[in-house]
């Protein structure tokens, strides 16, 4: 079985890169995906959903180097099981949505013409994307 999700949104945080105990780079950032529409009354409405995106290896290095808060990107990846918790302030149930990125690309105007992309089964910039193993996961 296989599932894939495609998101276009804006980074809510600067990417944070760290390394696993075995030295594998992993980068995470939040991504805001906003849907806008006009209601039946003609009023413009919008709803934003937040995702936590994780990139591994060369894609993690490029994400950390080129992406910044506010940048619009396209992310293609696999969705993880939602994390559910209760908000301590409001008492409402919340869910965390995690995506492991296979591809990240700039959308819209590209500063310096830079792009970050690593389709599944290939490596960006001639590097080795490799395969993720359980021992590489830092949590």
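Q: What amino acid sequence fits the structure above?
A:
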């Amino acid at each position: 079985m296989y599932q894939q999700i495609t998101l276009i949104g804006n980074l809510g945080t600067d990417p944070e890169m760290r390394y696993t105990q075995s030295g594998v780079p992993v980068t995470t950032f939040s991504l805001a995906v906003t849907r806008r529409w006009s209601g039946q009354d003609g009023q413009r409405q919008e709803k934003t959903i937040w995702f936590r995106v994780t990139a591994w290896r060369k894609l993690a290095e490029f994400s950390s180097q080129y992406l910044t808060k506010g940048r619009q990107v396209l992310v293609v990846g696999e969705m993880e099981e939602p994390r559910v918790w209760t908000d301590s302030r409001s008492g409402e149930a919340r869910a965390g949505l995690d995506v492991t990125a296979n591809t990240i690309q700039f959308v819209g105007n590209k500063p310096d013409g830079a792009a970050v992309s690593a389709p599944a089964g290939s490596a960006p910039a001639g590097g080795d994307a490799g395969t993720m193993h359980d021992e590489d996961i830092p949590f």
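Q: And what stands out in the fold?
A: Residues 18 and 26 are 6 Å apart (CA to CA).
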